[in-house]
Design a protein that fits this description.
It is a single chain. With 258 residues, the protein is α+β, with helices and mostly antiparallel strands. The chain folds into two domains: 124 residues; 111 residues, no CATH class. Helices cover 34% and strands 23% of the residues. The chain contains six helices and eleven strands. Strands 5-6-7-11-8 form a five-stranded antiparallel β-sheet. A hairpin with a 4-residue loop joins strand 5 and strand 6. The radius of gyration is 25 Å and the shape is elongated.
Length: 258
């Protein structure tokens, strides 16, 4: 991976958010990488790109954890492929050094003792921090947020497609992972603004509904299935719908894209 390759946005574990930062868990419509806090902002900044050197927490030897520091806040970051997780955080007290990392080491050594007492296969490492890493609850939360991220991307894409087509009257497309989304806008002689949406690929009906619901300037109940696009017939793997676009919304889209 190149040095400027982007990482996924850094996020805290739910345990870290609740216990270390003492922040409420927001609704699932708010991705955890958007929670506002100095240590989270610094983590996002520090781990924005891959293959950048970071200072490792040497006292922890069972996992590779990295230091993150801002103001009086200290944190420990664990990277899962291209997703950085803030797994622990705390404040440096006045007049002390990096006491957070000393406390982290002590807790990790105590956790190792507890782990070895409960398991027949004793750990060979000096520390144990597995309990700090993202667990099932964290992964369920991340998957739940994926719908929010998709709808945000979808809205931005539809807006960009509409703006491009309003400028030249042609169909513009974007490829998603499993389908291609096309959009074309045209104004006829009666000054009505006709808009067609085309999906190529297999998508469940509920996804098509989400797409149509987020097309700018169109009534949600105004969609009709189409069997041809303005310039060609549909292919076997395509489905299309048409609607009328509010001309005022069309003008706003063009104005904001200047």
């Amino acid at each position: 991976m190149s040095e400027d390759a982007a990482m996924r946005p850094a996020r805290p574990t739910l345990r870290c958010l609740r216990e270390d930062l003492e922040l409420p868990i927001p609704a699932v419509t708010v991705p955890l990488d958007e929670v506002e806090h100095p240590i989270l902002a610094k983590t996002a900044e520090q781990f924005a790109t891959a293959d950048v050197k970071h200072e490792r927490i040497r006292a922890v030897d069972d996992q590779v954890l990295f230091k993150v520091k801002v103001q009086r806040w200290r944190g420990a970051v664990w990277v899962d492929a291209d997703l950085p997780w803030l797994v622990a955080a705390g404040r440096r007290e006045d007049g002390s050094g990096d006491d957070f990392y000393a406390a982290l080491e002590a807790d990790a050594k105590a956790a190792r003792v507890r782990y070895n007492a409960a398991h027949t296969d004793a750990l060979k490492t000096d520390t144990y921090t597995g309990h700090l890493l993202p667990d099932r609850e964290d992964h369920v939360r991340y998957r739940a947020e994926s719908g929010v991220r998709f709808v945000r991307r979808l809205r931005t894409t539809l807006l960009e497609l509409a703006r491009a087509s309003l400028r030249d009257g042609r169909e513009h497309t974007v490829d998603f992972d499993t389908f291609t989304l096309g959009l074309q806008v045209r104004a006829d002689e009666g000054h009505e603004t006709y808009l067609a949406v085309r999906i190529t690929g297999s998508v469940p009906p509920n996804l098509a509904t989400v797409i149509l619901r987020n097309v700018p300037g169109c009534q949600a109940d105004g969609w009709y299935p189409e069997y041809a696009l303005p310039e060609r017939d549909l292919l076997p793997a395509e489905q299309a719908w048409s609607n009328l676009m509010d001309p005022r919304e069309a003008a706003r889209i063009l104005d904001t894209g200047a």
